[in-house]
């Protein structure tokens, strides 16, 4: 993907054109130093898609955080994945 605009808390990318039968399977991004969470912008971006969405955060610590969810065209199903991340301490 090509970056259109980027800042400390925002990235806008040009997504590739997909065929009618294609879709994105996973959307994963980082909130870097802040704890992982789904922002209002994430909710807007995910609302009309079917995919798994994830955010990684607190990357400067020995306890990184992560949140994942299944997006089903406007409804979200949160996944319990916190125990999947090992302690880095």
General description of the model:
This protein is mainly beta. It has a domain at 27-73. 8% of the residues lie in helices and 40% in strands. The protein is built from 1 helix and 6 strands, in the order E-E-E-H-E-E-E. The strands form 2 sheets. The chain has a 4-stranded mixed beta sheet with strand order 3-4-5-6, with no helix packed on it. The chain starts with a strand and ends in a 10-residue tail after the last strand. 9% of the residues are buried.
Outline:
This protein has 89 residues and is mostly beta strands.
How much of the polypeptide forms β-strand, as a percent range?
35-45%
> If helices are DSSP runs of H or I spanning 4 or more residues, what is the number of helices?
1
| Strand line-up across the major sheet | 3-4-5-6
Q: Share of helix among residues?
A: under 10%
Please tally the β strands and state the result. Answer: 6
Query: Mean pLDDT across all residues, rounded?
Result: 82
Q: What value does the Rg take, in angstroms?
A: 14 Å
Classify the secondary structure makeup into a structural class. mainly beta
Low-pLDDT parts are none
Keyword list:
89 residues; globular; 8% helix; mainly beta; 1 helix; 6 strands; four-stranded mixed beta sheet; two-stranded antiparallel sheet
Give the SSE layout.
Layout: E1 2-7, E2 10-14, E3 26-30, H1 40-46, E4 50-57, E5 65-72, E6 76-79
Parallel strand pairs: 3-4
Antiparallel strand pairs: 1-2, 4-5, 5-6
């Amino acid at each position: 993907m090509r970056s259109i605009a980027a800042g400390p808390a925002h990235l806008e990318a040009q997504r590739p054109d997909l065929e009618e039968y294609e879709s994105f399977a996973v959307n994963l991004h980082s909130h870097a130093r802040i704890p992982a969470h789904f922002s209002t912008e994430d909710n807007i971006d995910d609302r009309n898609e079917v995919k798994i969405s994830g955010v990684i955060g607190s990357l400067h610590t020995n306890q990184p955080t992560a949140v994942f969810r299944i997006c089903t065209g406007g409804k979200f199903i949160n996944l319990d994945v916190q125990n999947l991340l090992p302690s880095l301490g």
